[in-house]
Amino acid sequence: MNLEAGMYIRPKDGLDGIGILKEIDGLSLKVEFKKCVVANTANHYKKASYELIDLIEDGDYVNGCKVEADDLLGKYIVIYESEERKYKRMYLGRINIDKIVTKEQFEKMSYKV
Question: In the predicted model, is pLDDT for residue 26 greater than 90?
Fold first, then answer.
């Protein structure tokens, strides 16, 4: 994978969420996340793309809705609850992405009872 400044980056552990690659110096990367800037090596990151949709995985949350894999079509879908209290499915490519929470972030911040 050729990394370039301006790409979105998903770390292997996913705990920081998805960041933007600001600077490359050899194998050292400077990535800006929502709350901080992290310098790390290139092999600390799992995926990189200019498109956010390419970094989303099964179990993540987009705009507050859970993302699930649709194995029949090989695409990701979001599950949301409509006003009628019935669940609806929409393909991820049809949604304006405002917020992403990785499954690792969600699990880290969850309180288990």
Answer: no
